[in-house]
Amino acid sequence: MSCFRHPLAVAVSALLAAGSAAAQSPDAPPATTLDSVTVTGSHIKGAQLSGVGPVTVVDAAAIERSGATTIETLLQRLPASAGFAGNQTNAYWTGGGYGTTQVNLRGIGVNRTLVLLNGRRIVNGGTGANSSVDLNVVPVAIIERIEVLKDGASAIYGADAVAGVVNIITKRGIDGAELSLRYGETFEGDGADQSASLVWGTTGERGALTASISHSESRAVNMASRQPCGLGEVNGRLECVGSSATIGGRALLADGRMVNFNQVPGGDGDAFAPYTSADNYNAYPTLNAANPIKRTSFTVFGDLELNDRVGLFAELMFTNRQSNQLASPGAIGQYRPVRLAADHPTNPTGQDLTLVRRRLEEAGAREFYQDVDTWRVVAGLDGRLGERWNWSAAFNYGRNTGVDGSTNVANLDRVDRTLDRSVCSAAAGAAIPCGDYLGFGDLTPEVLDYIMFTTRDTGGNSQRSFTANIDGELFEVPAGFVGFAAGVEARTDRGWRDPDILIQQGIANSNAAQRIDGEYDVREVFAEVSVPLFEGRAWADSLTFNGAVRYSDYDLFGGDTNYKLGLDWQATPSFKMRATYATAFRIPNIPELFGGVSEGNLTTTDPCSGWSALDPSSNLARNCQADGVPAGYTQLGNSVLTRTGGNIELQPEDAKTFTVGAVWTPDFARGLTLTADWFDIRIDNAIQSVAGSTKLALCYNSDGLSHPFCADSQFTRNPVTGEIDFLSAQPVNAASERISGFDLGLLYEFGFAGFDASVDLDVSWLDRYDLTPFPGGETIEYAGRITGGRGSYAHWRAFGSFLLARGDWSGSWSAQYIGGADDINASPGDIGARAGSLTYHHLQATFAATPSLDLALGVDNVFDKRAPFIQSYTDANTDTMTYDLLGRRWNARLTYRW
């Protein structure tokens, strides 16, 4: 049956385990069981998948049918996925840096979904000091299946398993070789996507060895080929609005007028006119709807039986990822004011002016680039003790290093020199040429060569861990054997990132960034038990209790204990219910803890300024007086020296998760399985950055300075003058979150006109996602909204498929449904205030030409559905984290085995 299981199906045969077998008729094929393996969500071998929580399985056959070349394509179609996790544009800075892709279960953050490879952690990936695993590092060719546990599992696996766990299981036990070649592109002839992989394996009496090499790459699709320009609502209709960073330069004159300089190639460089939105810059020709990426991977997995009781296993994996993103030409004036006096030789206005924005169009588009290497090595021993106990011990080392940066970045110090007539020269070959930034075309190649440079950042992540586990059967009770597992883990995680020195110094026309370098150590011990309580009763075929506890000791945070309690009730052979309650936690990541700390004067309002003139009975007046602020105190200026960056004082986030579900295989419909699960996640002490002004206002308006933001760690005052001499805008454990909803699943396997057929449907209903950013803050309701930076949280999401197979032919028709959602930043009645529901259809067919040769052809987005207009987004006029930009596209694959 597994050959017909769709990638997004609920894991049906494993869900039912022995219970479903009892429900089948004598001539039915036996149900698949997992008695000899460890399933995701439990360390006890033979634990039923249905008893550890709601699990979705994506198997190798389903991966082939999807036509996907990357894991994220599969996982981001899961209805349980939402929010932001990287996307096909490959254009955003995510938890792993530009070019990375992740999975975001429930949409509550990529760093709250734990990703494992063969049950062990993977080093965070990206361009340095990253917060999540980059899915690019695992080649699709080596995947046997992906198990997705949609439940809190910190008691089983430790930190970060708040929303769930994605466990990628690799192929083992292969005899022979398999070559796979794939090519695809859009129906508009762009966005070519190609891959080649070779997997080889041999299996003997004492062991097995599997190796692979794979390469995949995709090419760019220009944004303007899908959307002509950035759109905005003007007088009730959509018009191109563009960017106010113009190619001629937009300037503010001393008399208050805003003017724009020549934008016509070859025009009068001294010409200027009042600025209007018609002068704005259309960036879309210098952006991509999909950016190019290349991945090359090499893997070796092996195991060797040393004797009848002990075996050796090892894993080696290397991946290189090269990715690029096209960006519009940079602009000056944004990060440092450019002021020209009335008598400056390049100023034709006769007034002092400030150049607000000037896009350096003459230099051409910028190109962000990344080159990332990731290594992973695992070596260990496993074996048996007696007849009922298994053990394993392994060392796991992972390291990734990256180089990234951008072309065509301006050195602002050098820009200043080209304007300083005391140091620059108009003579040919001058060391510092004089520049004219007013008017397009006035910048000479010599000036561009002098001011422009390519940034180079370096960084990486490393992880070292040792794990040792034991599991088996403690003793027998009337209802069966008591299963038990225990183990220890020691782990060290480190991350570092060194931005280009000019970026650190704040003299590049880009956001300033500081160096990051930090690590943490953890020592953990866990135990897990599975106790059969009843068996063969009138009201229960079986009732099993599952429990787990894990103690984690971090060098930075101290100890933390998490537990999990569960019941698995097989009421009848065809009906099962399960429930779990668990605590979970997420530790602050390296950037949150060790992000470069800096201080600067930020615009801030001191609520105690002039407090003595207020009503003395008000909270504000009483609190300012109680805090020692002198009567008559007035804030000097509108800024306060504020500390930003990481916060070493952060503590882990705490979570509580509850799931309850049912599995039903009705006797009246052989081959039909229905599942339903309710989930509820509550997160406290969630990490959030809060502006200094907000902290001060909440503190002084609270009762008796009772707000957490009144602590000395948040701000202090000079005891004599009352001025604020320390204020923190660093992240704090201030937020709380609540997420709940339903997951529904249906799988129906049947015969149809001589075909083996199945219908599969996986549905998620997000009932609520409420975020309170800090105590006393207004709760933000994300459910049913598109959030303008975090992605879409549509109430309904679904993925369904219809599969047919007969003889040498097989095919699948699948559909991904995304429910309607409101733009959180738009007003009712605005164009794009609501995106309607949308369904993407995909078709895949496979022909087994010979026992060794398969040919496959597929079409994604069969009906060429276009992304809806979303007002909050500036790239592609839509939510690129949720909707398809590329349109209809085809792919073909050849697979040969020998």
Task: Give an overview in words.
The chain is mainly beta and 898 residues long. It contains 10 helices and 48 strands. The strands form 8 sheets. The chain has a 22-stranded antiparallel β-barrel. Strands 12, 13, 14, 18, 19 and 20 form a 6-stranded antiparallel sheet that branches. Strands 1-4-5-2-3 form a 5-stranded mixed sheet. The longest helix has 12 residues, at 12-23. The model is unreliable at 1-36 (pLDDT under 50).
Q: Would you count the extended β strands for me?
A: 48
> What is the alpha-carbon Rg in Å?
30 Å
Reading off the top of the CATH hierarchy, the class of the largest domain is best stated as: Mainly Beta
Describe the largest sheet: 22 strands, antiparallel, barrel
First-last Cα distance: 24 Å
Low-confidence stretches: 1-36
Helical fraction equals: under 10%
CATH arch. level architecture of the largest domain: Beta Barrel
Specify the CATH homologous superfamily of the largest domain: TonB-dependent receptor, beta-barrel domain
The CATH topology label of the largest domain is Maltoporin, Chain A
The number of helical segments is 10
Gross morphology: globular
Mean pLDDT: 89
Instruction: Provide the structure class.
Output: mainly beta
- Quickly count the domains: 3
Strand content: over 45%
